[in-house]
Write a sequence for this structure.
């Protein structure tokens, strides 16, 4: 898919941050957008900004942690050409003191929210042999970080789901791509307190959500397996995959020095 004109893109977590930026980027590229999130007023604002770019924009209040909401969202769209599963949140705490409710809620939203939407959209995509699912994950789904265990677990699960789903649909006309950004400058950190992150993680300057949004649109266009950004994160993840003990040791040492 190289031209989004006439296409319909469904984006979860679209009321702010990466989701909002992705909605505007798809709109600039000519796609009609269906915007899903829990905050109606914020959704309406994003929809208006997209319409100002000359495309159709439909806000639908949705809680992706509720399966029926996800089914209703997908059923309301005649044809979903691209699904962007972006909704998520994080709470950072050491595992020994983490609130079990927070752990369950992160898994329900970050992981099951994507599962519910994918299951809802797949039958018609497979039937017509066309469509793309973009999973917005994180580098924390590739490497575990101290004090972020619950959040990492939800993203590891999400990455495993995306890889398995990609293998299941290869050759059937449907593409599954992952976008794994490092720290991004959004209101995500109103919940996930950045000062609880490992010191080494806080060294990385937060990216603008527009950069991640461009990567999401590019993933929808070419169906490439995985995008990790920025470059520093991509290099570090490669180090972790080849020399995992070295990467973890480096993270611990730099974090200790920072603290």
């Amino acid at each position: 898919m190289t031209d989004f004109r006439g296409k319909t893109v469904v984006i979860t977590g679209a009321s702010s941050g990466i989701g909002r930026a992705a909605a505007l980027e798809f709109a600039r590229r000519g796609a009609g957008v269906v915007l899903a999130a829990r905050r109606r007023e914020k959704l309406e604002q994003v929809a208006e900004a997209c319409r100002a770019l000359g495309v159709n924009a439909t806000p639908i209040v949705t809680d992706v942690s509720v399966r029926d909401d996800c089914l209703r969202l997908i059923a309301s769209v005649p044809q979903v050409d691209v699904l962007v599963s972006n909704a998520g949140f994080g709470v950072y705490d050491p595992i020994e003191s983490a609130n079990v409710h927070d752990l369950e809620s992160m898994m329900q939203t970050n992981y099951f929210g994507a599962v519910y939407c994918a299951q809802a959209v797949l039958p018609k995509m497979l039937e017509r042999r066309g469509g793309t699912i973009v999973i917005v994950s994180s580098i924390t789904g590739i490497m575990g970080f101290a004090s972020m265990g619950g959040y990492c677990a939800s993203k590891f699960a999400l990455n495993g789901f995306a890889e398995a789903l990609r293998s299941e649909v290869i050759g059937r006309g449907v593409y599954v791509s992952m976008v794994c950004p490092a720290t991004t400058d959004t209101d995500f950190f109103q919940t996930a307190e950045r000062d609880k992150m490992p010191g080494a993680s806080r060294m990385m300057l937060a990216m603008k959500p527009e950069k991640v949004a461009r990567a999401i649109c590019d993933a929808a266009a070419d169906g490439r397996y995985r995008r990790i950004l920025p470059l520093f994160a991509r290099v570090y993840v490669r180090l972790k995959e080849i020399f995992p003990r070295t990467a973890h040791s480096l993270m611990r040492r730099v974090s200790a020095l920072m603290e």
